[in-house]
Amino acid sequence: MTEAAARRTPGTPCWVSLIVHGLTTTQEFYGALFDWEFRPGPEQLGPYVRGLLHGKEVAGIGQLPPDRHLPIAWTTYLATDDADATAEAIRSCGGTVAVGPLDAGEAGRLAIASDPSGAVFGIWQGSEHIGTMTAGVPGTPVWNELVTRETSMVAKFYQTVFGYETEAVLSADFDYQTLHLDDVAVAALHGVGHALPRDRGPHWMTYFEVADTDRAAARVVELGGRVLQPPREGSSGRLATVADPEGAVFTLIRSAGSGSTDSTDSP
């Protein structure tokens, strides 16, 4: 796949990464759960590895400095053609830029930001590294969703910064908006009201494809993680919400269909 063919439309989720205390033990967990192998780099990010599935990059894991105690969470990165301009747009629309923009060697340029509700996300201006290079098979991120209190105000932020078109679910008791780019659904906003976990606040959730949700959830427990919401049927497949041994929360999904997934579906 050439760089030109792989380049994501700005606003498209293009990468997920996790910064942890124990890099080696975290690699062992995700390697056993998703069959990832790991490759070091880029060095500019400190101790950092990329998880590979069948030789293709799918996610990144880095190590926190010993004196840093930040929430351990998967971070969704949204593609941009100009990280500096996007960072300025984030600030002008009420968001915060906490890190960067900064260069990650020859790989690209990044920033870590939060929306007006406090949900953290990244932006990625790809150079040599465009982002996740395979999707739809078990072990790959297939969907990203902002879990927040209510969607109307924060939707305006994402629309203005990234140019999304939104499509709301018309329901009195279900606050859900899908984010579209070029008529393709790429992510979603899910308002859960008082059901939002108090210890987490608004956050982006990463969904990983699995071959068998129940088996994968059981495997998480065997490997030292926890099941937060047991396997259940959703509109796009069978899903379970779990946490790794350091507490990073993510969702497992066996997408509806014949084992493959349409990443434009919303769970």
TrEMBL record:
Pfam families hit by this protein = Glyoxalase_6
Question: Which InterPro entries does this entry report, sorted A to Z?
Answer: Anthracycline_SecMetBiosynth, Glyas_Bleomycin-R_OHBP_Dase, Glyoxalase_6, VOC_core
| Every VOC domain range | 12-126, 140-255
Q: Which PROSITE patterns does this UniProt record tie to the protein? A: VOC
UniProt xrefs under SUPFAM superfamilies: Glyoxalase/Bleomycin resistance protein/Dihydroxybiphenyl dioxygenase
Please give the PANTHER family that the UniProt record associates with this protein: CONSERVED PROTEIN (PTHR33993:SF10), GLYOXALASE-RELATED (PTHR33993)
Q: What is this protein called?
A: VOC family protein
Organism for this UniProt entry: Streptomyces durocortorensis
